[in-house]
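Q: What residues go here?
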């Protein structure tokens, strides 16, 4: 167990155990899960995933990916686009946008904005982390006591895992050529940056496209993987 807990950063496996560490399965995993949940047709259930098409890349010298984009189709219609990198020039996000029939909603760490097609606009401030943490623990304690409480169950969390597995089924992890990478040193720190990745992600986000569908020289297409009868993660020969 100590091997799994302490030696998984940037790895696909620890011993015989899959970890598939990555921004979408670690630092930003909750946001991928939130998108799956918000795309669900029922209030307390995540969306059913139909297919995943992904592109996985690495600029760091690691086993797994540090940069990715995904197109995730759901059973009831909403399409999820997800973009992430640990190799940006500037720190930005996370940003969640929902486009619907009556308008759009945008969430950032500062709060949410809802814009209706009618022109009406609403702003909602986020609660501070302490208040949100306290609410979370209260719900967990209620559940432990056998009271009615809504928490993220295995079915909700499992939807994010289905997306992660589908992404690795869809795409090899492509090492980005060094000519598209710059290393910035500042005192005792080293920063790895994919040239132009900030602009690339913003453009892909706005156009709802994957990197290979744009003018990105290092991009490689992934396969569209049908996830409807998906039951287990199968290791690719050259993962």
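A:
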């Amino acid at each position: 167990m100590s091997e799994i807990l302490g030696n998984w950063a940037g790895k696909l496996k620890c011993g015989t155990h899959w970890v598939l560490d990555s921004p979408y399965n670690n630092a930003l995993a909750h946001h991928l899960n939130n998108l799956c949940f918000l795309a669900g047709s029922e209030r307390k259930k995540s969306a059913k995933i139909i297919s995943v098409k992904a592109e996985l890349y690495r600029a760091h010298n690691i086993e797994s990916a540090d940069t990715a984009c995904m197109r995730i189709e759901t059973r009831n219609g909403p399409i999820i686009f997800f973009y992430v990198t640990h190799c940006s020039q500037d720190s930005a996000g996370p940003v969640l946008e929902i486009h619907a029939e009556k308008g759009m909603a945008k969430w950032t760490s500062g709060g949410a904005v809802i814009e209706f097609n009618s022109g009406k606009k609403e702003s909602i401030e986020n609660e501070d982390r302490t208040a949100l943490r306290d609410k979370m623990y209260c719900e967990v304690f209620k559940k432990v006591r056998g009271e009615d409480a809504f928490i993220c169950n295995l079915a909700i969390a499992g939807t994010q895992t289905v997306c992660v597995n589908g992404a690795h089924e869809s795409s090899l992890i492509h090492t980005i050529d060094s000519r598209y990478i710059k290393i910035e040193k500042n005192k005792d720190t080293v920063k790895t940056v994919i040239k132009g990745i900030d602009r690339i992600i913003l453009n892909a986000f706005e156009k709802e496209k994957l990197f290979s569908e744009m003018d990105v020289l290092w991009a490689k297409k992934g396969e569209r993987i049908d996830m409807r009868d998906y039951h287990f993660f199968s290791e690719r020969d050259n993962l």
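A: Context that may help when evaluating the design: The first helix runs from residue 2 to 6. The chain has a mean pLDDT of 91.
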